[in-house]
Amino acid sequence: MNILIVYAHPEPRSLNGSLKNFSMAVLERAGHRVQVSDLYAMQWKATADAGDFLEHEPETRLRYPAASGEAFANGTQAPEIAAEQAKLVWADVVIFQFPLWWFSMPAILKGWVDRVFAAGFAYNVGEHTPHRYGDRYGEGTLEGKRAMVIMTVGGREAHYGPRGIDGPIEDLLFPIQHGIFFYPGMTVLPPFVVYSADRLKPEGYTAIEAALEQRLVTLATTEPVAYRVQNHGDYEMPGLALKVGLEGKTQGFAMHTRDSSPCIDEPAS
After folding, report:
1. 250 near 262, Cβ under 8 Å?
2. pTM of the model
3. Burial (CB count <10 Å: 0-12, 13-18, 19+), residue 202
4. Which burial class, exposed, middle or buried, applies to 201 when counting CB atoms under 10 A from its CB (0-12, 13-18, 19+)?
5. What is the pLDDT of residues 81-117, one digit of tens each?
6. What is the CATH number assigned to the segment(s) 2-225?
7. Over the stretch 232-264, which tens digit does the pLDDT of each residue have?
8. Paired residues of 96 in beta bridges
9. Arithmetic mean of pLDDT, 131-154
10. What is the spatial distance between Cα 100 and Cα 81, in angstroms, rounded to a whole number?
11. CB 140 within 8 A of CB 184
12. Where along the chain do its domains lie?
């Protein structure tokens, strides 16, 4: 398989740096082709602005989504944007690797998404009618690819459990997994999360390597997160609200996975 790792950490000697190098070695040893977009090493420009479009007139008001779609269609995007899009097209699997900073990804990685996921490339595609609202959420230009997060977290695992003070890890990752991966059609694999990263001891690192290797060698067979596909009947059109009863006993983000059980009326007592 072709595997793209989009990597965001400023220190090559960090835990993230070690895990990135380990992942590359495991994947290449297994016969996969690997590319790495090391955003800090690339000095990736995180800000989305008029400089992203080679033919934008300075006196013209910038409407970034429209400008990105026009530049994508006309081949007038900044060269670094087109190069990253080509990597995404090439990849069978996309891995985002980063430390959790302030409950999200580092700004440089968000800036990569802002610039690379252009209109016409990752969104604003497909038929928009009262019965179908575009090719997105399970369908789209990146359909058929698999995606996964590898993430380090400073806090303890219990802090990110169902009752943890920092919120369930699935909720924190929902904007990335559902909104960035699943939106343009990618299949989302469960994340690989390293907790208590700042307190990790050597023996703990050995165990993490073993667990990560198992995840990497099973990328093609791991059961994905069961997000609901937008246009397959679970949502009312055109309002795109989940149909009543499909949420089962879940609420919040969890309603948008098929793991939630339909409501079943209790027998009268």
Report:
1. no
2. 0.93
3. exposed
4. exposed
5. 999 999 999 999 999 999 999 999 999 999 999 999 9
6. 3.40.50.360
7. 999 999 999 999 999 988 889 999 999 754 433
8. 6, 149
9. 96
10. 24
11. yes
12. 2-225
